[in-house]
C-alpha cells in the first residue's frame, strides 16, 4: 500500500455507512456511503438502483451498529452518484448535526483514502449461531494515491491501493462502491467500480469536477443536499498552490537538520499535551467553524485567492469542524487564516489540532507549524522576526546554536520561511498594541494562522485595516447534541448498566426537550463553549458522587454568570480530591485543595500583575518588590560567604598563629559577619541594578569540559574586564573592613600581609574573578540538540552551570592561594590556605554570582526560599506545577506553563486578591513608553 502522508480530518468513522438495498427484482445490493450533511448520505447510484427499500447501517463507537431507514432523493446514473435521505435520524452515532464536507478537484497525483465495506472484509461473528446475520462486513480503510490523468474519457479517477487476494467468483471490492474518496481533508470522488482488468490494486471513482456539466436545476439540487459548491471554480484545488509551487529545499544542512529536530520535538510535545488535556477522551468535541458573515473583517476574495487577473472571485468553502482546520487552511491560496472565537470557544483546541495535523502531513522543506502566544510580544519595541526567534530559543534551546553567519538556527529558520507561525491570542495584547501588531502582520506576506476574540479583532481592524490576503472564520457555539454524549460517556456507565439512571440523562433531556425553561436556558447558555463543557465534565463526570442535576437549580444559580462562576470555583476541589495518575501515587505527593487553591491563586495574581499568561519558572516572584528581592539575595550571598569565611578562619588561626580556640572562634565570628555583610551588600546592590532592566532569563548554554572545536571568543575580554571591575572594589571593601574594624577591636591575627597584602588582595580578587568569568566563556557551548524543553530540564541545566561555576571559582582561588602559602609557610598550611581560599571563592564569588546574575539563583532565592517562607508557594514548586499540569489545571507550552484557560487564571487571581489583599502581587510602574 502507498504509505504517503494522509491528512487527519478525512473520513469520520461515525459517518461512514454500509448500505443494504433490497431490490424489486434480483439479489440485494451491498455498498458504502458517507453522511455528508445532517440528513443526507452520499453514495454511488448503482448501489440503490431499482431499490424497494434501503437500510443505512452505521458503526457505533463501541463496535456495535445502528441501522436506520433511508430513501433515494437524488440519483444520476451518468455520473454514478446518488444522495439518500435519512428517514429517521434518531440515535445517529455522530449526533443529529455534523460539520459540512468540503469538495476538491486534483491537478496532480495526491495521497488519498477511502473507508468502506468491501466483500473481502466479510467476517463470521463468533458470538452468533449458524443463522442469517451470523456474518458481517467489517470496515476497510484503503489508503493509496489518486491521479488525474487516467480514465479521462470515462470521467473517473484512478485510485491505486494495495489489493486484496484474488477471488475467482467475485470481485473482492464488491461493496466498496459508494465510498467517499478523500485527499487532504476533502472529498475528491466516490468509488464507482473495480476495473478487474487493471488488477486488484486499482479502483475507479466518479471525480467531483465531472459532476458540473449536469443541468443547472440538477446541480442546484445537489448543492442544496450535500453542499457541493455552486461552481467548479469554487472547488479546492489539490495539491494546494503552495505545495505545488514549493521548490525543492536548498537550505543548508544545519537548517534542514534543525527543522527536522523541531518537528520531532513539537510532535512529541503537543501529542503529550493533547493526551494530558483529554482533548480526544472519550472523543473530540464537535467544535465547528464557519466563514464569518462580517464582510468588513476580511480581504477581497481575489486577494485571498491570489488571482491578480480576476475582477471578481467566488468565496472559498471555509465551513468545517475541528478535524478539518488544517485542510481549510491549506485550501486558502495565501495561507493566511484568522480564527475568531469568544473566551473558551475552542481556539486552543483548534490550534492544537492544526499544529498536530500539519506536523503529520509536513513534507521536507515545508514550513514547521509553531504555536506562539502573542501575549508576550511588544510590537512597539521588538520586530516580529526577533520575537519569533527569541520564543523559539526559549522553548527549544538547541536553536540558540550559531548558524555560521552571525546568527542562530532559530533566526535562520525564520529567515528561510521554514516557520509557519500559529499566533494565538491577539486579544491577549494590551489594547494599544493590537492595531500595531496587526499592522506589522499586514506588512508581511507570511502564511499564518491567527486567533483572537471577535470584538478585539474588530477594534484592531478598525484601527489599521483588514489583514491582507487573510480569510476569516468564526467558531460556532456548541449545542446539546455536540456535548451530550461527551458528558454522558465521560462519566462511565451508570449503576447496574441502566441508562435511565445515568446522572446526566435528566439534565440532557431537559436541555433537549425544554430549552426555554429557566434552568435549562441558563445551563444551555453556559455549555456553548468547550471550556465550560470541560469544566462540567471535570466537576460532574470525572468526580464520583456529584449530581449534575443541581446545575438546573434556579434558586441556587440565578443565571449563566452564576453557573460559570460555580464551575470555575468547583474545578480545583474536584481535580485535587483525586490523584492525577499512578506517578503521583508513587511519589506520595498530595496537596490539599485549599492550599493548592491559595498557591495557584498567588501564581495567577503574579501573572496578572505582570500582564502575561506564561508561567516561567525564572520569573516566579518578580512581583515581589525590588527592595525585598535585593535584601533576600543580599542576605543569601552574605550567609554563604560569611559562614564559609567564618568557619574557614578557625583552622587557619589555629594552625598558622599562636592564638587559642577562643580567639579563633571570636575572630571567625567577627570576620564572617563583616565579610558576609560586605559581600551581601555588593551582590544585593548589583542585583538591584540589574533588576531595573530586562528580567534575567535562563542560560541556553551548557558546560562542556572536554571536546574540541572551541576557540577563545570575543566575550572573553569583556568577561575578564567585568570580573576585574567587580573584584577589585570588593577586595578593597574587605581590606577596609579588616583594617578599620577587625584590627582596632583587637582581632588582628598578623596574617593580613601588611601594606603589600592590602594591595595584593584587591588585585587577587579582581584578577581571579576576571579569570573565572573568562574561563567560563571557554567551556560554555550551546545546548545539545537532544536537550529537552521542559521547565524542569532547563532548570536543572542552569543549576548544573552554577555548580560548575562554583567549582571554577574554587580552583582559580584555591590553587594560587594554596601555592603561595605553601611556599612561605609549608605544604600543610598551603593546602589548608588553598582550601579556605577556594571555598570562599566558590561560595562567596561563585554562589553570589549565581544568585545575582543567573535565572537559577533568582529562582532559588525567591521561588524556593522566600515565597515558601511567606506561605505563597509550596517548597517543591516544580513538582507542584507538574502535578497541576497532570490534573489539567495547567498546560505546558514549550519551556513555560500556562493556566488551561485565561478565564481560570483570571478567576483565581480575582479570588486571591479578594482573600489576601495584603499579599497580592503588585506590578511596578511601567517603563517610559511601555504600554500599560
Automatic annotation (TrEMBL):
Entry keyword Cell inner membrane: no
Entry keywords, A to Z: Membrane, Transmembrane, Transmembrane helix
Alphabetized SUPFAM superfamilies for the sequence: Trypsin-like serine proteases
Transmembrane segments: 632-656, 668-688, 720-742, 754-776, 802-823, 830-851
Superkingdom of source: Bacteria
Transmembrane helix found in the keyword field: yes
InterPro entries hit by this protein: NACHT_NTPase, P-loop_NTPase, Peptidase_S1_PA, Peptidase_S1_PA_chymotrypsin
Start and end residues of each NACHT domain: 337-489
Protein name: NACHT domain-containing protein
Source species: Streptomyces benahoarensis
